[in-house]
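Quick one: structure tokens for this chain, please?
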Amino acid sequence: MQKKDTVIIGAGLVGSLLSIYLSKRGYKIKMYERRGDMRKEKIVAGRSINLALSDRGIKALEEVGIMDDIKKIAIPMHGRYIHNADGSTAYQPYGNDGQFINSVSRGELNKMLMNLAEKSGVEIFFNEKCEKIDWKMNTIHFENSDHPTGPRGQLSTINHQLAFGSDGAYSAARLTHQLQHDRFQYQQYYIDFGYKELNIPAGSNGEFMMEKNALHIWPRGNYMLIALPNVDGSFTCTLFFPFEGAPSFASLDTKEKVKTFFAATFADAVPLMPTLEDDFFNNPTSSLVTVKCFPWVREDKFALIGDAAHAIVPFFGQGMNCGFEDCRVLNELIDKHNDNWNLILEEYQQLRKPDADAIAELALNNFIEMRDKVGDPKFLLQKKIETAFSKKHPDKWTPAYAQVTFSPQIRYSDALKNSVKQEKIMQQVMALPGIENIWQSEDVEKMMLEKILG
């Protein structure tokens, strides 16, 4: 089959990685990005929730031969470092020995992927906003905002044989696909919480002011603060907080209120945040959306990928990893179907849609775990029981977190089914009288074995 001239709309993380995959296969790639070139412009602070790169994403990066480059900007995080409201702290390893996730700056990763894409022969065009796609003529209309000619920017029409919409949760490519597709299904769901980026700078000699190799969480029931390390010694902090109510973004409307609230609620963090009040009011408050849609593809000529197809909330750290896995699965299907894009795109959609829906649900559920349960002694006991049982019977029980984060061979949809079954069993185990004293007994182990095999 012919290797098609390909246009990728959106030069974010997923679009850039996809362009590398395809260009290495000999496809001629042009990638169009609505924003300016972030490698030449100052990135606006405030929207860069640090990313947690884990095994699914790593597998895709390794497959295309660029993981060694990415390692240079990644910091391993071996567990959660919990900062309790009473001032105590606790460390919770993520998985078995040697298992970890990686903190990566979104901006630095995106810049590196763009550089690697160009090195592979990809052409990238910036300040190009997708206006319309003509499905009959196989053309895409872009408006360039960099050199306006009159009331609008310069307009261009690009021919293509294959196109991908990888332009994020608010995708312009998806919109034009949606408006010109009979029976297109679309759902977006906003949670009542937003997020705001804050900062813990490096120490005077560039040292980390908290444990470097951990994801720090301040769980506070209805909301939480998290912090992920950066290679320069700083931490990017994110406050996940209600939009309305008390406390909320709406109620913290003066610097004095912010200062008082943080001093009472995140006492050990405040001394490390010298620009707290300024960051709070200068950085935007952003919303968190889940997007589900169908169909993702159009004949052999177009597909949505990454957040454009399936935006999710960040609470399982899987948005980027899921998008990277899209690229890897697509690459496998190109081999399987020998560049027959009718077959490739149909099976890509069939495989990835159930998995995208599953990780969306898992991510929403994990918000409750992170902001509330990680500080609950009963929940911690449940996790201890699961971990011990899993170590004894690894072929019968893999904890839900490990299935999602460290087991790329397990589909998200299967991880969701397994986690529902396991949680039902654990609720019965936790309801046993005196479970805190008998959890290591043979009777509890036997009960779990019977139920998992039943």
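The two ends are 48 Å apart (CA to CA).
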